[in-house]
Amino acid sequence: MPAKILISRTIPPEAIALARAGATVDLHPGPQPLPKPELVARLRDKEGLICLITDTIDAEVLQGAPRLKVVSNVAVGYNNIDVAAATARGIVVTNTPDVLTETTADFAWALLMAAARRLVEADQYVRAGKFTQWEMMLLIGADAHGKTLGILGFGRIGRAMARRARGFGMRILYNDALRADPATERELGAMFVDKATLLKESDFVTLHTPLLPDTRHLIGAAELKMMKRTAFLINAARGPIVNEAQLVEALREGRIAGAGLDVYEDEPKVHPGLLSLPNVVLAPHIASASHDTRIKMGTLAVENCLAVLAGKRPPTPVNLEVPQKKQGPARPSAARPAARGGRAAPRRGRPPRSGPPRKHR
Ligand code: GLV
């Protein structure tokens, strides 16, 4: 009998078709996440769950799903899942790293350029019929080329930002819990500095850390104060990395020049102060939303789910220790890093992670 899986919300049809070819699929097609009681009820007889970042998969949900073997997140970040609780129950958690790295960096770069060159203001100006003549001093913005980019979080996506910055002739600073190896630093032309130096010297600060207890409010009033008045903050990682109320104040008071945001502290709510500020470009958490990449994310999530249900090692597991319990010997040497979603190389000297969620983009 094919395994039963729940797909908690619409994913690309290619991925749904793949899931249907390998399992009996219960698909919630609605635009809203399933309310928790319904999620629990529909999970009761399921062996697999394919879910999105809008689904909170906590200990209570997992406890209500006695047959569940795999939680497959269609995202690189998995701060929506209680990985420790899943691991304790022998449930494999998977995510979708790599396939979205370049697309996400493209979008973060688009936010950077749009904020620096006032693209949204310019668009609104033209649509409002205000473009009646060319003007020398109209909508003057900031250059990106030749400036300094500060990358906080030097995983896969952070490094993809560095590659883009090289093309713009930028000086590249980065900070991360773990320093990259010298060859990577050389290849990307990136210099490791402490956070304060990065904040003080960068013209653009771009965030690519996962959301962890110690990255929550990594950027608040004190950090914003360290930034140049002419600098821009870009966040396409997770909203709570920035103290949104303090960012609003800094933008209002001109303590920094502007921001480009794809993510918010309490999504889908956006701090009302942001909505009225002209010097911030806002997007609805769409950094990985290209046609091709969303298909790849959906497909990888289905492959992860079906692999676990077939007793195989999933392509991109998060809790590497579970396969040892449930699926025979894991192969740590061949394993991808216990993904700091976005991290390009295993953290040397650290065992694969177990316990609470620590990593995402
Ligand atoms: C999206 O935010 C993701 O983590 O993939």
General shape: globular
Number of domains: 2
Structural class determined from secondary elements: alpha/beta
List the strand order in the largest sheet: 8-7-6-9-10-11-12
Order of helices and strands: EHEHEHEHEHHEHEHEHEHEHEHEHH
The residue ranges in which pLDDT falls below 50 over 5 or more consecutive positions are 324-361
Estimate what percentage of residues fall within beta strands. Answer: 5-15%
Mean pLDDT, to the nearest integer, reads 91
Query: Could you give me the name of the CATH homologous superfamily of the largest domain?
Result: NAD(P)-binding Rossmann-like Domain
Radius of gyration: 21 Å
Give me the CATH fold name of the largest domain.
Answer: Rossmann fold
Ligands bound to this protein structure: glyoxylic acid
Question: What's the story with the biggest beta sheet?
Answer: 7 strands, parallel
The percent range for helix content is 25-40%
Q: Termini, distance in Å?
A: 36 Å
CATH class value of the largest domain: Alpha Beta
Number of strands: 12
CATH structural architecture of the largest domain: 3-Layer(aba) Sandwich
